[in-house]
């Protein structure tokens, strides 16, 4: 299932890049491709899908952060909702950075923290492998949930054009994208299968909640939460590009049509 979603996602990205290359300089954003394909309706529909999907995906970041930190901050009287509000100032500040190149250092730090966290989870799960219980290879009741999570795992299609545009040598982007997605797919499949085999059906949806209580676990959870805070502005970049682009000009720079008509009548 994960492999199928990965292949479909990559195929869609290459179709997107092929459409952009065929349209030419007019296709600067994914919305421009929608407009060239289906007119204004396609433009609006594509941009709406990007905004809603990326905002929905990034909501999972907030859920992960709040559930992992709630255990440590509950004694202070802070709920999960309070934790979300506390993380917003840092996220908003980072979201003001309007360049992917400037966001690169934050992404490097985030990736480092994520890989350290994955390594710790594997080290804690490995001793349980010898006592692994019987697992179900296929669960029809939860397949729709799995499919949604698999799609969420490959939610980067909206980042394809912005990343390609920011590269010094965009002609190498397809190969870079394929290599990155291949590595990520292998990591998802191998890590998920290994951890699920170790913990069995009792594994929680957020794997860090299964880690033992201790200083190392606390540091890992804080590190992973911090990595998501640093990754959040990168994933929201297509949203801000749309909101500050066509939608922003329409809402804040162009006067209402009624005022334009009144001015023309006065002239």
Automatic annotation (TrEMBL):
It is found in: Membrane. The chain crosses the membrane at residues 6-23, 44-63, 106-123, 143-163, 175-199, 219-240. Keywords: Membrane, Transmembrane, Transmembrane helix. This is Amino acid transporter transmembrane domain-containing protein. GO terms for cellular component: vacuolar membrane. GO terms for molecular function: L-amino acid transmembrane transporter activity. Residues 2-246 form the Amino acid transporter transmembrane domain. It comes from Hemiselmis andersenii. InterPro entries: AA_transpt_TM. Its main location: membrane. It is a multi-pass membrane protein.
